[in-house]
Amino acid sequence: MPKPVVARKLPPYRGQPYWEREKPQEVKTGRIWLSYYPGAGKLQIAGYFTKDGEDVRTKVVTLNQEDLTLHPAAKALLSDFLTAAE
């Protein structure tokens, strides 16, 4: 029987935050703002609105590449969603 996959328990990171260390690749649609940080392996998905000529993020969710690697079912679900969007 295969051993269950358990997420690594990492100590708290005390360095500079990834969003300050690297410039993300960004795409804005009419409703969502995607920011990909390849060095950190993070994808941020946020709603946004424009206030006083500036875009303001709301309800930010961050996907971590490590989580998808450790949980193949989550990776498959995200893949199915992206395939359906084509």
The multimeric state of the shown protein is single chain
CATH class: Mainly Beta
Classify the fold: give the CATH topology: Transcriptional Co-activator pc4, Chain A
The total count of strands amounts to 4
Number of domains: 1
Order of helices and strands: HEEEEHH
Query: What is the spatial order of strands in the main beta sheet?
Result: 1-2-3-4
Query: How big is the Rg?
Result: 16 Å
Mean pLDDT: 88
Taken as a percent bin, the fraction of beta residues is 35-45%
What is the 3D shape?
Answer: flat
Q: For the record, give the distance between the C-alpha atoms at the N and C termini, rounded to a whole number.
A: 37 Å
Give me the CATH architecture, please: Roll
Give the biggest beta sheet. Answer: 4 strands, antiparallel
- Helix share, percent: 25-40%
Give the low-pLDDT segments.
none
Put simply, the count of helices is: 3
Top keywords for this entry?
27% helix; 86 residues; four-stranded antiparallel beta sheet; alpha+beta
Describe the structure.
The chain has 86 residues and is an alpha+beta fold. 27% of the residues lie in helices and 36% in strands. It has 3 helices and 4 strands; from the N terminus they run αββββαα. The chain has a 4-stranded antiparallel β-sheet. The termini are far apart. The mean pLDDT is 88.
